[in-house]
Amino acid sequence: MDKKRNIKPTESELEILQILWEEETATVKEINDIINKRKPIGYTTTLKTIQIMFEKGLVKREKVGRSHTYSAAIKKEETQQALIDKILDSAFGGSASNLVMQALGNKKTSKQELEEIKKMIEKLERDSE
Amino acid sequence: MDKKRNIKPTESELEILQILWEEETATVKEINDIINKRKPIGYTTTLKTIQIMFEKGLVKREKVGRSHTYSAAIKKEETQQALIDKILDSAFGGSASNLVMQALGNKKTSKQELEEIKKMIEKLERDSE
DNA sequence: CCACTCCTACGAAACCTTTCGTAATCTAAT
DNA sequence: ATTAGATTACGAAAGGTTTCGTAGGAGTGG
What we know:
2 copies of one chain form a homodimer.
Chain A: H1 11-23, E1 25-26, H2 28-36, H3 43-56, E2 59-64, E3 67-72, H4 76-91, H5 96-105, H6 111-127
Antiparallel strand pairs in A: 1-3, 2-3
Chain A binds a DNA duplex through residues 10-13, 27-29, 41-45, 47-49, 51-52, 65-68.
């Protein structure tokens, strides 16, 4: 139990995890191609990062022919929550509402999204009664 | 301009910044004492970290007698926003509303705080009309 | 069979962060 | 004046992250 306590992907690892959450499964080549649309990075760099992630248990892999197919081994929501918890503690004094206000304040969020959030808040209020 | 682009305090630096935002000004000894209430850490470790922060421009200092008095050189809100922007980009695909939902979902936020957030959303909706 | 390409594995360099030991300086007290 | 205490500055070790070069195995076309 409690595997959540140890979620701490690095920047590079998060970049790859985001791709895997989107794609479900992917080869090193596919991942590297996607990243290279944004910035130049060597194939072996991406490979090495993924290998380290495999050792850490952040991704799973399956041998297909001579190459591997990778998929995320940690859930997106858990990872997101861990990241939030971290900055909540390290910069927001633990106050989730401060964080939310800051996140909404400086960002252009669409009316539709604001509505969704409002609905969620109302649901939370109802549940706590 | 654009000094905000470079805000990237490390974990240890954030710990110290949080103290300085709270205390306005403090000496190395004071900061080290506060941190030591939570965890053991050598005086020179804290000193070194603060010296590095000074070199990076994260804190200001003033010579008072033989010692220095430090204060934060970057604003709390700007730093918080930079941290949010970072995880927004690295884990939430840029969606502030996803982040907000995740932050509210798993956290016990008081009814009062939820009300505040709701008011803020309503204000944002009004402003965008 | 040979050369070429594709992939993996390994190791090392460069860089950053965290931690602390040591040395130097200055003040205050004996 | 000497010693003890406080404070700074410096440097270096240890650990983690990012990046890549090189080597080797395995399949493919000529």
